[in-house]
Amino acid sequence: MTKESQIGIASLYQKFEHYFDMGAAVNTRTIVTQADLIERHYNSVTAENEMKFAEIHPDLDRYTFGAADAIVDFATNQGKRVRGHTLVWHNQTPDWVFEGANGLPATRDQLLIRMQQHIETVVKRYRGQIYAWDVVNEAIEDTTDITLRKSKWLDIIGEDYIAKAFHFAHQADPNALLFYNDYNETNPVKRDKIAALVSSLQDQGVPIHGIGMQGHWNLQGPSIEEIRTAIELYASLGVQLQITELDLSVFEFTDRRTDLTEPTSEMLELQAQRYEQIFELFREYRNSITAVTFWGAADDYTWLDDFPVKGRKNWPFLFDGHHAPKKAFHRIMK
Ligand code: GLA
After folding, report:
1. 67 and 28 in contact (C-beta within 8 Å)?
2. What does the pLDDT look like over 13-39, one tens digit per residue?
3. Whose CA is nearest to atom 6 of ligand 1?
4. Fewest beta carbons less than 10 Å away: which of 148, 205, 248, 274?
């Protein structure tokens, strides 16, 4: 769609202005190919990959800020807010981070120094431009009675790696809002572990201001009641909530069908109903929810095109592949 035709459509973020921000994950390509759509409908952006450890700090003495800078410049020029994603994660982190001398693993002290230097360099660079950071991403184990996911951060530093990361981020930018971010966040077992983690951080006086609920959901689940229960529990901790990576896959996670070249009309109708119910719920909790960020902006590009089935197209957003509003958009704008 042209810029002119976008202007004929009511703006998503303006519609929700009195509730919460409406954000989109972007990359260096989509800030070009989706620029008009983003300008019109979203008032916040997040870098999909460009601020992750492996992208921004590939070697001990080398930072590569080009792509992240381009995204922050794009946002600043368009007057959008920026959420930072992400400082400490078990994925997309280079091996050197965890390596010590003579083929041994890094020591606890060595890894803490690296963590601190990384966080300080990245967070200070964008002070005043990035208002919130996902400090630690996905540290909780999904199932079983294990609480913290096995990772090199945990192995080498120990359980306090999470608290340390928050302290370092707070030192680097005392004004930034600091989030713990995770997926499967409405699953009762994982939900309770996330809440227990955040509550124990609070007890220790760790500067944590919010919980990021990723929101990688689909047409079947989680149910509105499950989402509500998670929101209630997290909000009861007195932190703010953000939905950080929302998308509604048209396929259930275990559904591996590959026959579709476009979504069926039943899928689009169900997706519209789900989005309507979900946003109704979010509006109810507007006192706790401060932003809703989609993990993309429109159906022409989504990470779900390759996950979990390589090469299979998905259609998870409010705007179609041509950036035109879908049924779901009209439903939540009512
Ligand atoms: C997780 C991460 C995101 C992204 C998605 C898949 O949710 O937090 O950064 O990698 O997986 O795109």
Report:
1. yes
2. 999 999 999 999 999 999 999 999 999
3. 303
4. 205
